[in-house]
Amino acid sequence: MGITDSNLKDFFKQTGIALFILAIVVLMIFNSVSNLDKKQEKELEMLNSSNQFEQEIVIGRVYEITSGKNYEGAKFVYYYQGKKKVAEDGIAHYDESLVGRFFRISNPSEDNHLTLYTDYEVTDTIKIKNAGFTSKTKFKFDISTGKYIPYKKFQ
């Protein structure tokens, strides 16, 4: 009832096959993730190098995250040529923390689909105002000081 050489050989053979399959799966996952990152980097480089984009930065504010059977999307508001518009774009992962935040979007035109670049968040209030959004002063009550603290909320 002890461990024999043939039992050890079978164990190592089975373990080796399992480790080999696991290594292949890990490499496939890593390859697909790195290809996605490269694609996003190319899109951002193209976006940043575009003269038209540098002249007018278009910013969108996410107001809703949608999720379906095979789809996650972000609905966002943006201003183009002085008009408020609404659009939706697919996102990689469902993330409620995107709601209320501002991101760069591809330049709108009549022909193409808008792309929301969630990797490029815009926090500069001057850029946000220049993109057409207005700010409203709101107040939060601070329990520790007993005072109302003003803060800006963009609409």
Topology at a glance:
Elements: H1 5-49, H2 51-55, E1 59-67, E2 72-80, E3 83-90, E4 102-105, E5 116-121, H3 125-130, E6 135-142, E7 147-154
Antiparallel strand pairs: 1-2, 1-4, 2-3, 4-5, 6-7
Q: Strand-and-helix sequence, N→C? A: HHEEEEEHEE
Unreliable parts: 51-55
Q: Tell me the helix content.
A: 25-40%
Main beta sheet strand tally, sense and closure: 5 strands, antiparallel
Oligomer: single chain
What is the radius of gyration?
25 Å
**What is the overall number of helices?**
3
Taken as a percent bin, the fraction of beta residues is: 25-35%
Indicate the structural class.
Answer: alpha+beta
Distance from N terminus to C terminus (CA atoms, Å) equals 76 Å
**Which overall shape is indicated by the principal axes computed on the Cα atoms?**
elongated
Main traits of this protein?
5-stranded antiparallel β-sheet
Describe this structure in words.
The chain is α+β, with helices and mostly antiparallel strands. Helix content is 36%, strand content 34%. The chain is built from 3 helices and 7 strands; from the N terminus they run H-H-E-E-E-E-E-H-E-E. The protein has helices spanning 5-49, 51-55, 125-130; strands at residues 59-67, 72-80, 83-90, 102-105, 116-121, 135-142, 147-154. It has a 5-stranded antiparallel beta sheet, with no helix packed on it. A hairpin with a 2-residue loop joins strand 2 and strand 3. The longest helix is centred in the N-terminal third of the chain and has 45 residues, at 5-49. It is elongated, with a radius of gyration of 25 Å. The termini are far apart. The relative contact order is 0.12.
